[in-house]
Design a protein that fits this description.
The chain is mostly beta strands and about 140 residues long. About 5% of the residues lie in helices and about 40% in strands. It folds into two domains: about 60 residues, no CATH class; about 55 residues, PRC-barrel domain (SH3 type barrels), CATH 2.30.30. The strands form two sheets. The protein has a six-stranded mixed beta sheet, with no helix packed on it. Strands 3-2-1-4 form a four-stranded antiparallel beta sheet, with no helix packed on it. The two termini are about 35 Å apart.
């Protein structure tokens, strides 16, 4: 499992997570690191066939268990679906994904990759709208 969480205790024995969508509750029976991955076993998933059926499933937490965000931080789900407009009011499109890259986050808006940086993003209204001031060439 590729870990995107910044809270390592999420995968401690006894931790409760939501598996897949709409979110089946599961409890961690065991976990261990292997290279850059985390191997997790769940209570109630006892054989290899049942475990293999879960390959690629997303693990999530209840929103009440999420850490408090700092100023200027956003959850991906608060950005995906937002309408992106320029400071001049031109509509660019909707955010379809947030890419997490070593140099920072990028908003995927149609064929555009918009860096989530203060020099570009002027205002974020989570779940609704993102206003940008594009750098020269960004939208070409």
């Amino acid at each position: 499992m590729l870990v995107l969480s910044d809270a390592p205790q999420r995968f401690e024995v006894g931790a409760h997570l939501l598996l897949g969508s709409p979110g089946r509750p599961v409890t961690i029976r065991s976990s261990r690191k292997q290279a850059d991955r985390t191997i997790v076993a769940f209570e109630g998933i006892e054989d290899r066939t049942a475990a293999e059926a879960l390959a690629g499933a997303e693990l999530r937490i209840e929103s009440s268990a999420a850490r408090r965000l700092d100023e200027g931080e956003f959850w991906d789900h608060d950005l995906v679906g937002c309408l992106v407009v320029t400071v001049d009011g031109a509509e660019i499109g909707e955010v379809s994904d947030v890419l997490h890259q070593p140099a920072g986050e990028l908003l995927v808006v149609g064929a555009h990759l918009i860096p989530l940086i203060r020099d570009v993003v002027r205002e974020v209204v989570p779940g609704r709208r993102i206003t940008i001031e594009p750098l020269p060439g960004l939208l070409d």
